[in-house]
Amino acid sequence: MLLTTILNQCYRFKGFIYRSARFVRHQDRQAIEVLVRPRTGSRALCSGCGARCAGYDHLPERRFEFIPLWGFAVFLVYARRRVDCPDCGIVAEELPWAEGKHHLTKAYMLFLSRWARKLSWREVARAFHTSWEQVYHAVEWVVQWGLEHRSLDGIQAIGVDEIQYSKGHNYLTLVYQIDAGTVRLLWTGPERTKKTFRRFFDLLGPERSAGIKFVCSDMWKPYLQVIQERCCGALHILDRFHIVAKMNEALNEVRAQEARRMKQDGYEPVLKKTRWLLLKRKGNLKHDEKGRLRELLSYNLRTVRAYLLKEDFQQFWEYTSPTWAGKFLDRWCRQAMYSRIKPMQKVARTLRAHRELVLNWFKAKKQFSSGIVEGLNNKAKLTMRESYGFRSPKTLEIALYHALGKLPEPDMTHEFY
Question: Which pTM was predicted?
Answer without folding.
Answer: 0.82
